[in-house]
Write a structure and sequence with these properties.
The complex is a heterodimer.
Chain A lengths: L3 E5 L2 E8 L2 E6 L2 E3 L1 E3 L5 E3 L2 E6 L2 H23 L6
Antiparallel strand pairs in A: 1-2, 2-3, 3-4, 5-6, 6-7
Chain B lengths: L11 H16 L2 H12 L10 H17 L30 H6 L14 H8 L4 H20 L8
Helix pairs in contact in B: 5-6
The chains are: A alpha+beta, B mainly alpha.
Chain lengths: ~80, ~160
Amino acid sequence: MKPHHKEYKGQNIEIREVDKKENLFINNIQMKYGQLPDGLYFLDEYAYDWKENLEDLAKAFIDYQNNVKNIRREKRLGKGDK
Amino acid sequence: MPCRKNYRDLTIEERNRFALALHHVKSTGVVDDFANLHAMHFGHIIHRSSHFLPWHREFLRRFEDALRTYDPDITIPYWNSTEDFDTSDPLFWANEFLEEFDSDWSLNRALGSAVLPDPARVQEALNKNSYSEFWPFLEVVVHNPPHVWVGGKMAGIS
């Protein structure tokens, strides 16, 4: 199976199948993930926003990372207190 | 019977004792053991199954017992995430209390990374007519967003 590529908000999502297992890469970094009893996917570092497929999971993680970057930027600028 | 209190209702002495107990169990490796245990079981019926609530209740009770080996009067305080989320409030996770752990333990928080459920959603959970309706709603709608809202380590499996 050919790797599946997707650009999302300037980030590269790639799903490669190796030995019948899907491997998820975001910007060429392999992401650790697992599945819940009903098959929903989670990332080890983003584990509470479950999705039905790895592409949607990667997009949600990228959105989360963007939120985190904005929060840290505002914090540095003194707009946030924590 | 010990009573778990909102962290805002703890006296200064109770806050200090709780923080000392946390530092103690971190230094002995207990915190990391509990984090690893949660991570190990994450995809194996402790989430997205009816075991979610009883497993985590027992998990917290055991962690509380670990804290009590240092101070027998400790109870784990709670955070009411539906009403208490103003990060500009100087008493919110105050520097001399919960904030210190962010840097000390490299938690890498990014408070505000998601939308928190409001009290109406909690009431919606409580209005469910059966356990089989209650736990999935509570887990996804009420429990999950605060993990993401806190961000950093709290957003991950451990």
